[in-house]
Design brief:
By secondary structure, this protein is mostly helical. Helix content is 62%, strand content 5%. Strands 1-2 form a two-stranded parallel sheet. It comes from Solanum lycopersicum.
Length: 185
């Protein structure tokens, strides 16, 4: 199966991490696992055969940012990503299955409507631009919803799985970054 249609599951993540942790430990270095979906991390930590949380001294760090600052960053990032419409167009299949692989990612399903209609609309560029803006708004809204879901999952991992998590609030860092961006504008 090609990369566009195959899923990278929590089990796939788990297997990759286990192999790479062992490789890194053989070099007497400390492995860092950065990012990943909460379900991936949960699979790793809760696996009863591998016993990750019993084998390794782990430190979980949650870098958090105030929601309003995060929303501004999401909007800026999505606006930057909007220029990638042509990349999606090259791989777009009008009647494709959007339930697997890359097609499930944020941006592709939302752009589906725009890409389908762009090919069929003989109207002016203003109409196409309106459809594109609606797709971009949808991406922003869905990204914010995903962030809220991720935050809920982090809270659940802390409360239900009793993971020790160091909560770092980095809003000031992101605000400083924003001030630098505004100064450069």
């Amino acid at each position: 199966m090609d990369g566009y249609h195959s899923d990278f599951t929590a089990e796939d993540f788990f297997l990759q991490v286990v192999v790479n942790i062992q490789k890194i430990l053989k070099t007497e270095r400390v492995p860092f696992i950065v990012g990943g979906s909460n379900s991936y991390i949960e699979k790793l930590v809760e696996d009863h055969e591998f016993m990750f949380k019993y084998k390794y001294h782990s430190c979980f760090i949650w870098i958090d940012v105030e929601q309003s600052v995060l929303n501004l960053r999401v909007d800026k990032r999505v606006d930057q990503m909007a220029s990638l419409v042509d990349e999606v167009r090259h791989i777009f299949i009008p009647d494709g299955d959007f339930t697997k692989g890359i097609w499930r990612s944020i941006r592709v399903p939302e752009m589906n409507r725009y890409l389908r209609q762009k090919a069929n609309i003989n109207e002016d560029d203003e109409s196409k631009q309106m459809i594109l803006q609606a797709s971009i708004s949808s991406i922003k809204r869905n990204t914010r919803m995903m962030i809220c879901n991720q935050l809920d999952k982090i809270q659940r991992l802390i409360s239900e799985k009793m993971l020790s998590v160091h909560h770092i609030i980095a809003t000031n860092v992101f605000n400083e970054e924003r001030e630098i961006d505004l100064d450069e504008a």
